[in-house]
Amino acid sequence: MSNTRTRLDTTFRYETPEGIELELRPAGPVVRGLAWGIDLGIRAVVYILVYVVASIFGGVGTAISLIFLFLVEWFYPVIFEIYKRATPGKSVLGLEVMQADGSPLSWSSSLLRNLLRTADFFPFLYCSGFISMMLNNKFQRLGDLAADTVVVFREARNTIAKIPAYPPKPSPYPLSLTEQRLILDFAERAQSLSAERRSELADLLFFLTSGSNKEAELTLLAYANWFARGR
Length: 231
Hints:
This protein is mainly alpha-helical. It contains twelve helices and four strands, in the order H-E-E-H-H-H-E-H-H-H-H-E-H-H-H-H. It has helices spanning about 1-10, 30-55, 60-85, 90, 105-115, 115-120, 125-135, 140-145, 160, 175-190, 195-205, 215-230; strands at about 10-15, 20-25, 95-100, 150-155. Helix 2 (about 30-55) packs antiparallel against helix 3, helix 3 (about 60-85) crosses helix 5 and helix 10 (about 175-190) crosses helix 12. The two termini are about 40 Å apart.
């Protein structure tokens, strides 16, 4: 119960330019520390395996292994955050990284937040990062503040159950993660909104649909069913 209260107290909402409200729950230092420990363990296993294999090839193997270890240490989090939205440690604990405004994480932001891990570590054991996290309601370490990023809990809600059933239809062109979230959020709230509000929101998302407001609403429902249920 206390954990639920803590998460609810730190929840913040972001309203997109399209008028859709996204709810984000920042992850605190304890769960992020556990995620970091899991990732550290994974990297340690990889380092040991690489060292054992490299030792077979003598000096050349050692040199190559050092380069490999450097790349893994610095780019392990970046690659996973960009393509999976979270490192394995964060994924296990249900966390993901995004921009503070709820949009998908960019390459530059991921690089910056991870390069500044050194500053967060200062003077030892991530003291600076911990103090920074405790001084703001989004639990952002120094790297997060500089890159304008936040680590949040992934939504646990049952999206499929909340979306009105409608024949699914794929979008004619690729949509970003944020655009897909906007459509899913619209569909989840559709039954609780007045006809006027649905029409207004559908009109704000006009760039994703065509036709009258009613046709636009149905098109958005079709897209949402495709994202949530597939074919």
